[in-house]
Each structure stands twice: as structure tokens, then as C-alpha cells.
Specification:
It is built from nine helices and nine strands. A seven-stranded parallel β-sheet has the order 3-2-1-4-5-6-9, with helices on both faces. It has a two-stranded parallel sheet with strand order 7-8. The relative contact order is 0.15.
């Protein structure tokens, strides 16, 4: 049997991707990368101005069809709005990227986190991906094959001081990834993408974090795009229930030492659009 050209396996021509958290940083970079690889897009973010700007930039640069939904994915009603827009604009959606995130509590001791703060993190980081993944499997992808990519975090694999809601919810998202991968194979593949601390310009949050990262620098949002395209494309056709790490070696080779935590407790809100390890 003739195999396609290796680069063609990374193409997303004829595909449609739904991306949450698409207004900033990694989500925005993935949107641009997917469109350049040939996909049409349904972008979701509660920041109307930001996601509209991303959508317009993608349209101008690539000519792809881009639809937008302005909503908080943590709200139970968000799925209905997203489904309605998807069905209005596209025949099917065959790629889902769950990138939206919430910290829940910032720099707070685990014993002091309120129920509302726990719920805020769980709503966005666990329940929203669960609801959207169910809608994707049952409705959006139709009878065809599909791919789900969940944005994880190093905080899912090691307890991070003062960031319990974020760490716990991201750990739950990893288990959710594995459960959907197990239940949906082989028609739908479900994998995790674990980025490090990334920003559009790659400037690390603190000097201590830079020194603790084996690559010796912060990551740029566009450096997660190659892995995101790989996981969405035919290039990863034999991968499900897996993780691709793009975090400068932080998770496996470094971690949250005392110097990193004392300089900048993980869980403290970043500037608008930042994603945290």
C-alpha cells in the first residue's frame, strides 16, 4: 500500500477544529497553526475582543473559514451555544482542543481554598472538557473519526504549593483524557498536550523559573503548535491516551524547588493571556 508523503500526514486540509481558550497565548497560537495547516476553525473564548482579533487575523492570513463563540466554557449553558454555532457554520467538527483554564485560587494554602474557588477550577478545567468531549463524540464529529487534544500541565503530575485547585483539576483532566481515550477508541483518539510556562514572547515569569528549566528559558506559545498539529493530524494516527510534553524539560528534569516557589508561588495570576506550567 502506498503511504502518503510524510509532510502530508501533518496537513489538516478539510478538517474543522473547535478550540477553547482561543483568545490568548497557546490557544491563539494553535488556532493560527491549525489554519495554516489547512483547517477551518470554531474559536471559543469569554474575552470577546481578544478572540475576535485572533479570528480576524487568521482569516486575513490564511483565508480559512473562522466562526466565533463568546462564552465562559465553565457555564453549563456554554455547550448548547457552541453546538448551535458549530451546526450553523460546519457540516461536522472533527478536532476538539480543550485549552481554556482557570486557577480557582491564587497563592492560597490548600486548607484555605473556598468551595467557590474549588468549583471555579473544576468547572473550567474538568467539567467543560467533559461536556464538550461528550458533545463532540455524540454530535459534532458525526459518524466519522475525530481527535480530542486536552491541554494539561506539569501541575497535574506533581503537587504544586499554593495551587491546589489548579493542580487537582489538571490531574483530573489527565484521567478524563485517559477515560475518553479508552472508551472512544478506535474511532476517536484522545491525547494530552503538556506545555510549560509559555507566553507570546517567551519571557519567563521569574529568573528562578528560568534557571530551574533545563532549556534555560521560557517557552513561546508558538512552540506548542507543532505538537498540537501532530496530535490532531494523521501523523499521530496510532496514538491515544498519550501525552506530548513541550515544557523545556521542566516536568521530568526539574520541578518546583523551593527557590521557584518562594520567588513566584505557582497559582498567582499571570498577565492576561498567560498559561502556567
Amino acid at each position: 500500500m502506498t503511504q502518503p508523503d510524510v509532510l502530508d500526514r501533518f496537513r489538516l486540509t478539510g478538517r474543522t477544529a473547535l478550540i477553547t481558550g482561543a483568545g490568548h497565548n497557546i490557544g491563539a497560537a494553535i488556532a493560527q497553526g491549525y489554519a495554516e495547516a489547512g483547517a477551518d476553525l470554531l474559536l471559543v473564548d469569554k474575552d470577546k475582543e481578544a478572540v475576535d482579533a485572533v479570528a480576524e487575523g487568521v482569516r486575513r492570513a490564511t483565508g480559512r473559514h473562522v466562526a466565533v463563540v463568546h462564552c465562559d466554557v465553565g457555564a453549563a449553558s456554554a455547550v448548547d451555544r457552541i453546538l448551535a454555532t458549530a451546526q450553523e457554520h460546519f457540516t461536522c467538527v472533527d478536532i476538539l482542543v480543550n485549552d481554556a483554564l482557570a486557577f480557582g485560587a491564587a497563592g492560597t494554602h490548600s486548607a484555605d481554598v473556598t468551595v467557590a474557588e474549588w468549583q471555579a477550577a473544576l468547572d473550567v478545567n474538568v467539567l467543560a472538557p467533559a461536556r464538550l468531549s461528550a458533545a463532540f463524540v455524540r454530535t459534532l464529529v458525526g459518524e466519522g473519526e475525530g481527535v480530542i487534544v486536552n491541554l494539561l500541565s506539569g501541575a497535574a503530575f506533581a503537587p504544586v504549593p499554593l495551587a491546589a485547585p489548579y493542580s487537582v483539576s489538571k490531574a483530573a483532566l489527565w484521567m478524563l483524557t485517559r477515560c475518553f481515550a479508552k472508551d472512544c477508541a478506535p474511532r476517536i483518539r484522545v491525547n494530552g498536550l503538556c506545555p510549560g510556562t509559555m507566553s507570546p514572547d517567551g519571557v519567563p515569569r521569574t529568573e528562578e523559573l528560568r534557571k530551574a528549566t533545563p532549556m534555560g528559558r521560557g517557552g513561546r506559545a508558538d512552540e506548542a503548535v507543532g505538537a498540537a498539529i501532530y496530535l490532531a493530524s494523521a501523523a499521530s494516527s496510532y496514538s491515544t491516551g498519550d501525552i506530548v510534553y513541550v515544557n523545556g524539560g521542566f516536568t521530568h528534569l526539574a520541578g518546583y524547588g523551593d527557590e521557584v516557589i518562594s520567588a513566584d508561588p505557582v497559582g498567582r495570576p499571570r498577565s492576561k493571556g498567560g498559561n502556567t506550567v
